[in-house]
Amino acid sequence: MAAATGLAKAAGVDMSLKWPNDLLVSVRGEERKTGGILAERAGTDGVVVGLGLNVTLREDELPVPGAGSLLLAGAVSTDRDTLLRAVLRSLERWYGEWTRADGDPAASGLQEAYAAGCATLGRRVRAELPGERTLEGEAIALDGDGRLVVATEGGGTEAVGAGDIVHVRTPGV
C-alpha cells in the first residue's frame, strides 16, 4: 500500500495492487505489472523488504511481454530519488498508522485502503496454491489477516494466504 500510494503521488500515475504483492499501472489502457514487493522475516522481530520496480524501461527492454514501466504509463517523474523519497514517506505514514492501531489493519485504515486500491477484488481469479492445488472463483474480500477471500462456484468461500493469483478474463470482455 505504501509503495502504491507513494509512487502514484510522485510519478503522477494511477497505481493499483494485484494481491498480494504486485504493483500495476495502465499502459495504453492495458493493466500491466510494473513492480513487486517481497518481504522476508529476519530473526525473531525483523523483516527485510525488497521492492523491484520498472521505472524507465521502454517496451523492447521489458523483462516479459505484458510488463509495464512508469515511463510507459506516462509518469510525470521517473527520478529515482524522488520516487524513493515518496515511497519512504508513504511507508512512514502507513507504518505509523498501523503501529498506533496496535497492528490492527482495520483500525489503522490499511485494510480498507488496500481493498480500495486492489485490482484483484471483484474479479474472477484462479489461485494456483501450494501442493499443485487450484481454486477458481471471484475475489470478494480481504480478511483481517490480509488473505484473499474467494467465492467458489459451489457457493462457499475460501481464504487464500499464499499462492499465485491469475486475473481470469471473462470471454468477450
Task: Please describe what this structure looks like.
This protein is of the alpha+beta class. It contains three helices and nine strands, in the order H-E-E-E-E-H-H-E-E-E-E-E. Strands 8-7-6-5-9 form a five-stranded antiparallel beta sheet, with no helix packed on it. Strands 1-2-3-4 form a four-stranded antiparallel beta sheet, with no helix packed on it. A hairpin with a 4-residue loop joins strand 7 and strand 8 (157-160). Helix 1 (2-11) packs antiparallel against helix 2. The longest helix is centred in the middle third of the chain and has 21 residues, at 80-100. The two termini are 28 Å apart. The model has no long low-confidence stretch (mean pLDDT 93).
Using brief descriptors, characterize the structure shown.
173 residues, alpha+beta, five-stranded antiparallel beta sheet, four-stranded antiparallel beta sheet
Tertiary shape: globular
Work out the helix count.
Answer: 3
In order across it, which strands form the biggest sheet?
8-7-6-5-9
Catalogue the unreliable spans: none
- Summarize the helix and strand pattern as letters: HEEEEHHEEEEE
Distance linking N and C termini: 28 Å
Chain-averaged pLDDT:
93
